Amino acid sequence: MKIISTVKLKSLLNDLQQEFNEHEFIERESLDHLTAEDLAEAELLIAYDSELDQQLLEQMTNLRWVVWYAAGVNNLPLTYMKERGIILTNARGVHKIQISEFIFAYIMQDYKHLNDYHDLQQSHGYQTKIRTAELYAQTICFIGTGEIAENAARIAQAFGMKTIGINTDGREVEHFNETVSLNYRREAFKKADIVVNVLPETDATINLLVKEDFQAMGEKALFINVGRGTVVEEAVLIEVLKNKIIRKAALDVFYQEPLDAASPLYKLDNIIMTPHITGLSRRYNERATNIFKENLKIGIDNSKDFINLVDYTKGY
Amino acid sequence: MKIISTVKLKSLLNDLQQEFNEHEFIERESLDHLTAEDLAEAELLIAYDSELDQQLLEQMTNLRWVVWYAAGVNNLPLTYMKERGIILTNARGVHKIQISEFIFAYIMQDYKHLNDYHDLQQSHGYQTKIRTAELYAQTICFIGTGEIAENAARIAQAFGMKTIGINTDGREVEHFNETVSLNYRREAFKKADIVVNVLPETDATINLLVKEDFQAMGEKALFINVGRGTVVEEAVLIEVLKNKIIRKAALDVFYQEPLDAASPLYKLDNIIMTPHITGLSRRYNERATNIFKENLKIGIDNSKDFINLVDYTKGY
Predict the structure, then answer these.
(1) What CATH number is associated with residue B66?
(2) Considering its fold, how many domains does chain B have in total?
(3) pLDDT tens, position by position, B148-204
(4) Could you tell me which of A198, A214, A273, A220 has the C-alpha nearest to residue A111?
(5) Which residues make Cβ contacts (< 8 Å) with residue B215, sequence separation at least 6?
(6) Same domain (yes/no): B74, B18
(7) Which of B126, B150, B265, B269 is the best substitution to test chain A (most A C-beta atoms within 10 A)?
(8) A312 in a structural domain
(9) Given CB atoms, is B119 within the 8 Å cutoff of chain A?
(10) Is A137 in the same domain as A80?
(11) For residue B145, which of A45, A207, B177, B289 sits 20 to 30 Å off, Cα-Cα?
């Protein structure tokens, strides 16, 4: 097969070429840089590029498989791809390690007062009344029980935390001491010291969390959002933080991104913010490539057994 | 038995009195506040007070058991206590949760650039080139394989880290992928991304780490010290940090404590410092009391089965 990548795979592409020398691997800078020959002959396209649209795909008459190096496929021309019978696999799961780790970074920053100790060091101070809290025996509740939440829950249990998972039907998931359905989420919020949103953006998750949810979490709670910012309206978030309805928030995602420098969120003293970076990893392409390699070994004729095969009827 | 506590146990003392109502529990503000009756009648003393010396013990003619609410017993009159046949138990193990957690707080602060992200937030910045590192697949090496190291190694493995333990004879310990004897420690340092000292202060550990040890760790290394500051001379530490022989240090303990505000350590930009606080916990007394309760249940007549029974010949 002729395989074109518009993802900058660098040495990973050489590794692929060596391991799968029955195929021809070609790297192009972007989809705009595909040659007429590329378009005509490519059977497989590795991409992570918002310009992959129906018009382009129509020119790629031999294309059989799109290897999408992101998790979300909602901007791809799914209906057309389904009609054409193009196989689509994505990079679901490549975020779980880095996002899980950052959840604990936020918790440590908050529970261990790392900023306060940093300030103490800057002032050459030694004596202090700063007292830290322990993760041990705390209850952490994840909204969503997918791969990221499950991995983070496993680590939380290693810290001696109690884990609660919230999903649509309350089904049991490994590494959660308890699971609750979305309808009963406020019962879980009441028990939790930390609530972590890891939900993706769908029609069902936009504006899901309202003031009553934060009232259930209460003034003890640290709310962490590494899912999508649209899960709660910014005005609601500002109100609950300003009025200390919850204790603190750690946010990597925002309703409108990039966050405006004039956002009132910056004025709050009980907030930790990062600029949508928890999913980044120096090993991102390596991990996505490992999934692709497994699928290449399975072989395109057995694509129904592929890892991360997108189901066009579900849209993910 | 008449049991005197000079540790402020508050409600924990009431709990003890209720659970063990065959004994009489009395709290005194300090050893100076013991009455003549206390001295004459007490059979059991709960203390954490540097003034517990031979002179005082000689007055406590009925004393059979000292429950020491700290780990280190090296300042107690051990020879005299042994002669008298006084049972001594300590609070070994009560630090493992909080110190383990703080090890990961330092790692998160360093690997996830939490200070840089905090500064970015203060400047209302959103775009950034700050790239973080992952704990996953890193190698962490503990000098010492006692309870703190073992607990931290267990958590490290949950993060997907490789763990190496260094102890006197290289004996295997749970949660360490590999163990190495102290003589071969530099081989372990070469493999490690993070080296954590958790050793207590003994004749054998004072000035144990010299320049060659840090050269073995190399410029990739984060060195964390939550054991005792005397494991490395301050001048050596300053040299290896100033010359970037190692990448960074996170220190909770210092050669001279409290650390002088004029210490050259404050001038270094590759150092994280906290004022000997990683062992503190709001649950310290609760944990020490739980050990004591277990021993009370075992009963003084079976003291050879006690948890944390100090062996006078070993001194710990």
Answers:
(1) 3.40.50.720
(2) 2
(3) 999 999 999 999 999 999 999 999 999 999 999 999 999 999 999 999 999 988 889
(4) A220
(5) B240, B245
(6) yes
(7) B126
(8) no
(9) no
(10) no
(11) B289
**Domain around A299:** 2-94+282-305
Distance, in Å, from the CA atom of B245 to the CA atom of B280, rounded to the nearest integer, reads 31
A5 - beta bridge partners? A27, A46
User: If pLDDT is split at 50, 70 and 90, which confidence band does B125 have?
Assistant: very high
Same domain, B84 and B106: no
Tens place of pLDDT for every residue, chain A, 316 residues?
999 999 999 999 999 999 999 999 999 999 999 999 999 999 999 999 778 999 999 999 999 999 999 887 878 999 999 999 999 999 999 999 999 999 999 999 999 999 999 999 999 999 889 999 999 999 999 999 999 999 999 999 999 999 999 999 999 999 999 999 999 999 999 999 999 999 988 889 999 999 999 999 999 999 999 999 999 999 999 999 999 999 999 999 999 999 999 999 999 999 999 999 999 999 999 999 999 999 999 999 999 999 999 999 877 7
User: Are the C-beta atoms of residues B64 and B43 closer than 8 Å to each other?
Assistant: yes
Beta-carbon contacts of A228 under 8 Å, excluding residues fewer than 6 positions away, are: A199, A200, A201, A205, A253
| CB A231 within 8 Å of CB A197 | yes
From B133's Cα to the closest Cα of chain A, the distance in A is 7
The pLDDT, as a whole number, for residue A49 is 78
B297 and B168 in one domain? no
- Of all residues in chain B, what percent carry a pLDDT higher than 90? 94
Residues A3 and A25 sit within 8 Å (Cβ to Cβ)? yes
Task: Give buried/exposed letters for A127-152 (b at 16+ CB in 10 A, else e).
Answer: eeeeebbbbbebbbbbbbbbbbbbbb
DSSP percent split of chain B into helix, strand, coil, nearest 5: 40, 15, 45
Classify strands B248-251 and A194-197 as parallel, antiparallel or unpaired.
Answer: unpaired
